[in-house]
Amino acid sequence: MATKSNEMTPKERILRSIRGQETDRLCWLLFLAYFWQFQPKSVQDAGETIFLEEIGADPLHKGAALLYRIQRKRCQVKEQTHGNEEHIVYETPVGTLVEKHVHVMEADTGY
Questions:
Q1: Four-residue CA torsion sign, 101, 105, 106, 109
Q2: Mean pLDDT, to the nearest integer, of 79-104?
Q3: Extended beta strands in the chain, E state
Q4: Residues 25, 12: contact at Cβ < 8 Å?
Q5: d(CA 87, CA 78)
Q6: Strands of 39-108, DSSP E
Q7: What is the rounded distance in angstroms from the CA atom of residue 72 to the CA atom of residue 90?
Q8: Angle at the Cα of 35 (from 1 to 3), degrees rounded to 5?
Q9: Cα 42 from Cα 59, distance rounded (Å)
């Protein structure tokens, strides 16, 4: 997105807002989950970033790919699927933890 010389980039605006510093305008962040999937195909095909820029929002892609690697020591992770449920089992020396994700078709929730 081209910016005027006195206009901050979305990244600068977001970081300055988080730090409590002055910005050129109000930082506006949207989370498009459960909204995006109901937009016309032409809007979806153009992409979220274009859509956010067109409505004047600052693109911040929450839930995007991780920029780091998770390492677990002395922990085994197993994934199991049971119908519309996904179970992630963490086995550690002090016990077992089960994370459960349920897919609800009517709400179009993911695992």
A1: positive
A2: 92
A3: 76-82, 85-92, 95-102
A4: no
A5: 8
A6: 76-82, 85-92, 95-102
A7: 10
A8: 10
A9: 19
